[in-house]
Specification:
This protein has helices spanning about 10-15, 40-50, 60-70, 85-90, 115-120, 150-165, 165-180, 190-195, 250-260, 265-275, 285-290, 305-320, and strands spanning about 25-30, 50-55, 80-85, 105-115, 140-145, 185, 205-210, 225-245, 275. The protein is of the alpha/beta class. It has two domains: about 10-105 and about 235-290, D-Maltodextrin-Binding Protein, domain 2 (3-Layer(aba) Sandwich), CATH 3.40.190.10; about 110-235 and about 295-320, D-Maltodextrin-Binding Protein, domain 2 (3-Layer(aba) Sandwich). It is globular, with a radius of gyration of 20 Å.
Length: about 325
């Protein structure tokens, strides 16, 4: 992964050059539904850059589809949150500006999370690996996301192809997973905040496909962890930002991307969106060291997602009977 270090002064000087008549130009950022940029960060950017409007366009898959359909008359100037499972769709459809460049902003490891208290109450062993979720003792306990719509679901789909020796072995595992009562939710938000028993939604599923960083936000009144992640053979998701083709404010878009690489924005990522900053010099919160370490092992990152996505999804949809 390329390490990027950008001085905030560079971003500020570029932001100033994008303004005319002492009035900041407007800038529209298209982002997925999980995007969070606090008021203080928005104000810091707008002090030197453009007046910022944020359009949330669904989960990453849904957002990607919207950007492809509107590429000639884009719904914004800049996009944040395209990840390495959908990046090729953006590039192949020429959604981006002249450079066709996606800039890495953060990363996260897609791992299953479990509700610790549920397993204690049931005197049930926490699975050691996600491959174990087809065992009868974990029947009807797991919720995942639809990979046709969710980057979280698609990242896990990729990892299943990396974990088994053949596509038929992967399909056999999916079939066993389906028959063991897994639920396929439409989005990460639905799976985590509605279906998962270990979150505020208090759903009925004690195992959810989420991130290794998610447990940092799940503590009881005494500061004890309520959830933990299964950190073996996870998929490393990298999120990018890019200037959209035919952007009305391309200079402002470039300035915002540089601001996203600044110390201020990078330091805010763990607490605002529970992702790891791409700038490895940024110190992580102490709670992350205790409850949100990165995955022990990651798989699938070396597979050709662009070449195989359609075929993989077709095979998956046959097994789970879900539609794009």
């Amino acid at each position: 992964m390329k390490r990027i270090f950008v001085l905030i002064t560079v971003a500020l000087s570029l932001g100033l050059s994008a303004c005319t008549n002492n009035e900041p130009a407007s800038l529209t950022l298209v982002a997925h539904d999980s995007f969070v940029m606090g008021d203080e960060l928005v104000a810091e950017y707008e002090k030197y850059g453009s007046k910022l409007t944020i359009v949330r366009a669904g989960d990453v898959g849904e957002m990607t589809g919207k950007l492809v359909l509107t590429k000639d008359a884009p719904i914004g100037d800049v996009v944040y949150g395209i990840d390495n499972t959908f990046a090729s769709v953006i590039r192949d459809n020429e959604v981006l500006g002249a450079t066709n460049d996606l800039v890495p902003i953060d990363f996260a490891d897609i791992c299953f999370n479990v509700d610790i208290q549920y397993f204690k109450n049931k005197n049930l062993a926490i699975p050691d690996h996600w491959r174990d979720l087809i065992q009868p003792k974990y029947k009807n306990l797991t919720v995942i996301e639809n990979p046709n719509l969710s980057s979280t679901g698609l990242g896990f789909l990729v990892s299943t192809f990396a974990a088994f020796p053949s596509e038929s072995a992967t399909a056999n595992w999916w079939t066993a997973f389906r028959d063991n009562g897994v639920k396929v939710a439409g989005s990460w938000e639905d799976a985590y905040y509605t279906d998962f028993s270990g979150s505020a939604g208090k759903g009925k599923y004690p195992i959810v496909l989420s991130y290794s960083s998610s447990p940092a936000d799940e503590v009881d009144e005494n500061g004890n962890a309520k959830t933990l992640s299964l950190r073996k053979d996870c998929f490393r998701q990298i999120e990018y930002a890019g200037v959209l083709r035919n952007a009305k404010n391309a200079p402002g878009a470039e300035t915002l991307i540089k601001f996203m690489l600044s110390k201020s924005f990078q330091e805010a990522l763990p607490s605002s969106m529970y992702v790891y900053p791409i700038d490895k010099s940024i110190a992580l919160p102490e709670s992350w060291t205790l409850r949100a370490p990165a995955a022990i092992s990651t798989i699938g990152g070396d597979l050709d997602i662009a070449k195989n996505r359609a075929a993989w999804l077709t095979k998956y949809n046959r097994v789970f009977d879900v539609a794009p």
